[in-house]
Amino acid sequence: MSGAVSIEITSRDGEARAGVLHTPHGSVPTPTFMPVGTKGTVKGLTPGDLENIGAGVVLGNTYHLYFRPGVEIVKEAGGLHGFSRWGGPMLTDSGGYQVFSLAKTRKINEEGVEFASVYDGSIHAFTPEFTTRVQEDLGADISMVLDECPPPNAEREYHEASLRRTARWAERCKAAHTRESQSLFGIVQGGLFPDLREESLSLTTDIGFDGYAVGGLSVGESREEMLSMLSLVSPNLPSDKPRYFMGIGDPVGILEVIRLGVDMFDCVLPTRLARHGSVLTKDGRMNLKNAMFRRDFSPLDSECGCEACSEYSRAYLSHLVREDELLGHRMLTHHNVHFVTELCREAREHISAGDFEGWMENFKRRFSGGE
Amino acid sequence: MSGAVSIEITSRDGEARAGVLHTPHGSVPTPTFMPVGTKGTVKGLTPGDLENIGAGVVLGNTYHLYFRPGVEIVKEAGGLHGFSRWGGPMLTDSGGYQVFSLAKTRKINEEGVEFASVYDGSIHAFTPEFTTRVQEDLGADISMVLDECPPPNAEREYHEASLRRTARWAERCKAAHTRESQSLFGIVQGGLFPDLREESLSLTTDIGFDGYAVGGLSVGESREEMLSMLSLVSPNLPSDKPRYFMGIGDPVGILEVIRLGVDMFDCVLPTRLARHGSVLTKDGRMNLKNAMFRRDFSPLDSECGCEACSEYSRAYLSHLVREDELLGHRMLTHHNVHFVTELCREAREHISAGDFEGWMENFKRRFSGGE
Prior knowledge:
The structure is a homodimer of 371-residue chains. Chain A is of the alpha/beta class and 371 residues long. Chain A has two domains: 6-265, Queuine tRNA-ribosyltransferase-like (TIM Barrel), CATH 3.20.20.105; 274-368, no CATH class. The first copy, chain A, has 14 helices and 16 strands. In chain A, the strands form five sheets. A six-stranded parallel sheet of chain A has the order 4-14-13-12-11-10. Chain A has a three-stranded antiparallel sheet with strand order 1-2-3. In chain A, a hairpin with a 6-residue loop joins strand 8 and strand 9. Chain A starts with 5 loop residues before the first strand and ends with a helix.
């Protein structure tokens, strides 16, 4: 535990909390959405675009970067910051999630996990020590312990054994971690079993990390199940440490996890929706391939001040999206990342004002009344 | 002839000339490379990017815009300027080149040309009057007459009949043209036959246009043949009108046509090369997929001040290109358009300084010594 990253809570509203995340690459107001820069780039956007959007922490995927371009190249470039030229805070995952979700063949044992690369089928082994070292070489401000994210439909016995092994791996990650300018976060697993979630929480917090993530949710279970698990875990995490919910990016979901005290979250949804021609607005999702937008000369989102909304019409963006033009992908990505970033800013304001709950209910009502 | 667009020649060096093209959407120093915004967008770049690059005239393709999104939509948006939000000068071609190069089936007669759309096979007819009206609706500063660009290997008899029909079409375009804020340029054809080039030149200048293009070259003939035809035509065009060479974008070719007195030229080459991972530098073309760039942390082009070169390393851009990341296409396009734009700026300086020829020979020597 290096203490490189810390959180300062400045206001609370119920379980929801607003504050500031301090990192070696700057401070970020929380709650904060972290755009996913899978291979060292947030689809089509420059670091300058991300700065204009007001993005805070940018996430990199260790699994992908390990294979492409390879960790040695990123290290030689001065880490992910030097390589991608993003000067703000960064977080890398351990690669575990991709190992478990992408690999067709994998063997897990106490030592770690052996798997076939999704790129060329070659065999690789990730151990807690190895992914810790790789992440130190990538050099993000926050690194994550190697965990197993079991299939949502796995048996209780599997989850029990898995979370205990994940805790032993977490301990090995902590022992292996040496980079002073980088923090290491633990991950709470346990599937949809309340007592297993509690056990994982207690094992993980006993080890002690600079921050804690809740993993293994938003992977196919119902929204009620997800929130019920999160509400067991989140309030019982150390209140002086940042809380990271892994893998949520839909606007309503973001507000629901914020309501339960989460500070950070990431998801490919805003960027992936953009690549499929969909944008987020307060009135819901909107697919620009819909014929109704072909002659709609109003801005994408009249309440939004982003580059896409202040410059172009729906008709033009719809044309770009239909024709698979790069500028369409770029502008829609820009808007969607801006939208969730602004949503977090508003959430912070309403937490400070003490009216988060009512504001959130209004948002949900209007949003789900959309398309 | 509306006179909306005019040229002011400020210096000459041999046949080469430097000046300023005046249009209703601003003035552009010439010689100038015109980036191609096929469907109302220059692949991945915003109007703001083009402004930063220093781009002058942006070209739109009538054929593609007629089908996608359709001219009515562009017209309703306030023309190509309103639709794409590019505030500078624009030029549209007549669509003829695409009709002749893309259509599998087409029937040409005195009236015009009937062809099957490359998008859905539906049958359409372009006449001189029709393409003039479509271009008036698109509303660029410069529109082009409908011409036939015959296959390079066509017989002399075909070229002869074709250039005469093209001249009759040009006359009909001029008669049909009414938009005061838009100029109409004629096009000289005639294949590789010196006397036919002369006949086409004389027929076209007799009709009288605001500017003249040289068409039907750079379509498969040798560079020597191309330049020999251009050297017959260019110096005999009215010296007080802009001269546009259609379809050249390789750096050496650009300088060779500038040397013969051309003021404007366009080509998809810089943007197409970028999509294939290649960049232009003074040392020649460079393909970033080449393994030697994987660990090359120097800038793309150390003599270039564009966004791609001042921000990123070859290693990072090579990674983006290999992974087919949008940011890679965007940055390489940015650099290549910047490169040819800067090349034109330098050419203007050397025309003014009176040492164009020597500078061009040095450039050619260094450029062809590259990859």
